[in-house]
Design goal:
The complex is a heterodimer of chains A (503) and B (361). Chain A has 503 residues and is α/β, with parallel strands linked by helices. Chain A is built from 18 helices and 19 strands. Chain A is globular and about 75 Å long. Chain B has one domain: ABC transporter involved in vitamin B12 uptake, BtuC. Chain B has 361 residues and is mainly alpha-helical. In chain B, 70% of the residues lie in helices and 6% in strands. The chains are: A alpha/beta (503), B mainly alpha (361).
Amino acid sequence: MQGDVVLSMRGICKEFPGTKALKNVDFTLRRGEIHALMGENGAGKSTLIKVLTGVYEKDGGSIHVDGIEGETHIHSPQDAQNAGISTVYQEITLCPNLTVAENMFIGRMEGPVVHWKDYDKRAASILTGLGIPARPRQALSSCSLAVQQMVAIARAVDMNCKVLILDEPTSSLDEKEVEMLFTLMRDLRGRGVGIIFVTHFLEQVYAVSDRITVLRNGELVGEYAVKDLPQVELVAKMMGKALDDMAQLEQFDQKKAPGQDVVYEAERLASVNTKPFDFRIRKGEVNGFTGLLGSGRSESVRAIFGADRVTGGRIRVKGKDKKIASPHDAMKSGIGYLPEDRKRDGIIADLSVRDNIILAMQVMKGFFHPMSRAEMAKFVDEYVAALNIKTASSETPVGSLSGGNQQKVILARWLLTHPDYLILDEPTRGIDVGTKLEIQKLVLKLAEENMSITFISSEIEEMLRTCSRLIVMRDSNIVGELTGDELTQAQVMKTIAGGGAEA
Amino acid sequence: MLSKNTAPNLKVREPMTDAQLLMTITIAIFVAMYGLAMIFMGGGFLRTQQLFDLLNDNAALIIVSCSLTIVMIGGGINISVGGVIGLTVMACALFLNDIGIQNSGLCIFLTLLLALGIGLAFGLLQGFLISYLDIQPFIVTLAGMFLARGLTTILSVNPVKVTHEGFLTLVKTKATISWLGYTAKNGNLIPAKLEIGAIVALAVVLLVYLMLRYAQLGRHIYAVGGNQQSALMLGINVKRTRFMTYLISGLLSGLAGFVFLMHKPAGNASVAMRSEMDAIAASIIGGTLLTGGVGNVIGTFFGAMILATIQKIIALSPLNESWWQEMANGAMLGLFIMLQSVILSNRGKRGKAKVQAAGRE
C-alpha cells in the first residue's frame, strides 16, 4: 500500500435479491483529501458506504485500511469504528435525549462508571477547538440540525478517525450552515483526515472537493481530479449520456400562457401554521412558492390542501364555494398534494409499489368500491412505464426503491386521480439530476395538458425553469409575486431579502 | 458567527429538560396531595408513621416500578412482573414451609436466592427472546405473565401461610426511629417504624438511580431508548443493552416478590395481580415516556407514592370501595398524561418562538 493512501477498496461486490447493487467497484482515498462520491440515485453510493461502515456485508472484494496489516474485515459499525472509519449520516445518528458531550463519548467510554466532569471538559475543549457553537451539557435536541451534525463530526474526529464519511451532510442545512461545515471539513483535511463526501449538490462538490469518484448502476465510471472534470462532464458521466436533455428542457421554456379560468381561489386563507393569505391559480398554470426554509411556503400549501387545521378564509374551486378542512375534502375537489417529507407524509414503505400507487384513487372511490386486480395492474403498469419507475416488480415494497423512484411512485399516485390542481412540495429534493429533469419536464407537460400545478423547490433555478409565476414568502408573509421578465434569480433574491419593488 | 463563538462554558446553567420538568411536576403533585391530606384528613397523615406505612405497604410496588422504568427507558415493556412476583411469593412460601429448617438464617438466605433465581430465569429467557430473537416485548412478556401465573397455580391451588419462625421474626423486624415518633394519648412515645422491605426499596431506588445516571450501562439504556438505530451507529451493543434491561427487570421482580412476602407472609394464586399495571402507571406518572429514552426512577418513586397516597386517602374516606380506588387511579393517570402533553407542547411552542425571535435579530 502506498504511503498516502488511507483506504483502498478493491473489487467490491454486493448483491440484493433481484439486483446487483455493486459490481466490482474500486475506491481509493488518500490522506488529507476531500473525495466526492457521486452518482445518481440507485448508482450504489449508499451501498458502498454501508459496506464500508459494516451495515451491509460485502459479497466480494477486499478493503485495506492504512495502518492495519492485511485485509480489514468489517462486520459491524463497531468494527468500522475500530478500524478508524467514522460516518456522519444524512439523518443525524445521535441520540436527541442525551447531552452534547454524551453523544460525543457514548459507546466508547472507558470503565463501567461515567465520569461526567471529565467528559464534559474534554467535550468543551474539542468543541472550542473545532469552533462548534454547542455547550457540552446542552441537550442535543436543543441544537440546530447543523450543530448536531457538527457534534457528530466532532465525535468522529476525537476518535482519531482516518476516514470520515459524510453522507449527504448538507441536505438539511441553509447556506450559512453549509459554509460552516465546509470550513470544518477543510480544517480536518489540513489535519490529514481523508474525507468521503457524498452529496447531490454539484456546486458543493466543486466548492470543497479535491477528487471525484463516479458510480453508475453499481459500476465504477472513474476517478477524476476535480480540476480535470468540468461540471457538465460530471453530470454526463453520472447519467451515462450526453446532456441533450438539458437543452430539451430549455425548449420547453416557451411557457405557454395559462388559460383564464381560475381553478382555485382562496381569500384570507389561514391555518394554525400560517397567517391569512390570498391565492389563486389558473387552469394550466405552473406557479411556485419560494422563500427560505421556514418562510412558510410549505405551510401555505399544506393549508391549501387542508393538511393543517384551517382556521379561516374562503375557498372557491372552479368558481364554486367549497369547504376544504381535510385532505379528503381537497381530494374530492380535485386537488392533489405531494408532501415535502416523503418518508413521513408520503410513502408507506412496507406496502408494495402497486398499493402505494392505488392508494389515493382507492380513497377517492371509497373503500366499499374495491377495484379488481386486473384494473389495478393496468393502471399501475401504465404509470410505472410512463414515469419510468425503476422497480423489480409492482409487488416490491416501496421502501426498497431509491429516493427518486419513491418520489415517482407518489407522483403516480396523484396523477392517477386526475387532479385539476396538483401541489408538488419539494418533489426533487434528494434525488439525482436525471430524475430531477424528468420531473421538471413532466410538470411542464402536465401544464400543457391543462393541469394547474404549484411547484416548490429549494433550488431557485429549477423553479425559474418551470414556473410562470413565483410567489415569494418571508416570515410567513407573501412579500412579492414575480411574473414574466421579473423571473430572474437576482430578482427573486432581492425580493426574499426585502428589496423587491412589490414588497 | 464562528469568530463570536466563545469557549463553551461549563458553568452555564442549562435550561431544565422536559424530563426534569416532568419529574418536578410529579414531586410537586405528591407534595401538594400529601399536604392537602394533612390539612383535610389530619389524623394519621400528620404523623411520620403514615408516610412510613406508605413505604411499608408499597415496597414491592416501588421496586417493581423501578424495574419497569428501566425497561421503559430502554424502549421496551414488561408486563410479566406481576406474575413473577406472584410466582416468587408462592415458591418462597412453599420453600420456607416444606424444606426450611426453622430459625435457620441460611434457609432465609436460600429463599432470597430462590426469589432472585426465579426473577433471573424469567429475565434471561424474556431478554433473550426479545433482544436476540427480536420478538415483540409485549408478546413475550404477556406469554411470561401467563406462564408465571400458571406455574403459581401448579405449585399450589390453595393459599399458603408461611410458618417458618425465623422468617416470621424477620417480618416483624422493623427499624424504629424514635425522634420521628409521636406521643400517644397515654403519654407513651410510639416510635416510627420502617420495615426491612421499605429500606430495601429505598436502597433499590438509590442504586437504580445511580446506575442509570453514572454507569455506562445506564447511559446506554437511555441511548437505545432514545434512538435504537443511532445507538447502534454510535457503537453501542444494542442487543446486549436491551437484554440487560429485561435481566435487571426480572431480578428486581424476584426481589419484589421476596419483599412482598416479608410484608405479608402468605402466598396465593392471585398475589400481586395486575401490579404490572400499577408499576406502568407509576412510571408514567413519574415522567417516563412509553416511547423510551426519557425517565428517571426518582420520578417513578414519587409516581408510586402518588398511587399509594390515593389508595390511603380513599381507604380513610367514606368512599372505601375498590372501584373508587381504581377510578381515582385512572383519573389520576389520565389527568397526568394530559398535563404532561399540555405542558410539553406549550414549552415546545415557546421554544420555537424563542428560536424565531433569535433568528430575526
